[in-house]
Design brief:
Distance between the termini: 24 Å
Oligomer: single chain
Order of helices and strands: HHHHHHH
Length: about 150
């Protein structure tokens, strides 16, 4: 994985385009390429979580990455690299997840800066929740295909 701020390579942009058109192999290649980014974002927020909550956090990060791939604009007018875009998407999604957990009576605490980054009312749209469930199913299927048995444990 290159720096989050370096220009995206032509290969990366082509993988994104292919993944956006439904190519699961392209998505798997992107996922492997950006797995260190996904893991680092999970570690950033995982210090006080149980094992079960950590698994949920990793799933949320994977969904955020899937959304980042689907929504990234690969045109020449793009002012941000894919890595930075994915990082922001993952951070926002994890903050939203932790905020939701806290509202549900969990013991997860967010600091004021993290709370300020999150837009209000993000969880209120039922259609978004259904879409997320569908995306989770797709991501789960892709992860089953891509991950080794050891990574699945």
């Amino acid at each position: 994985m290159s720096s989050l701020y370096e220009q995206d390579s032509a290969e990366t942009l082509e993988l994104i385009r292919q993944a956006q058109n439904g190519n699961q192999d392209a998505f798997a290649a992107l996922y492997h390429r950006y797995e260190p980014l996904i893991a680092s974002q999970c570690r950033r927020f995982a210090q006080t979580l149980s094992h079960t909550d950590l698994e949920d956090l990793i799933s949320e990060a994977g969904l955020a990455f899937l959304n980042a791939v689907r929504n990234f604009r690969t045109g020449e007018d793009s002012r941000v690299t894919f890595g930075r875009y994915a990082q922001i998407c993952i951070q926002k999604r994890l903050i939203s997840y932790l905020r939701h957990q806290r509202k549900q009576g969990g013991i997860v605490q967010l600091d004021a800066d993290e709370m300020a980054e999150l837009p209000a009312g993000e969880d209120s749209d039922p259609a978004s929740r259904i879409l997320e469930q569908e995306q989770y199913a797709i991501l789960h299927q892709l992860m089953e295909q891509v991950l080794s048995n050891r990574e699945k444990e």
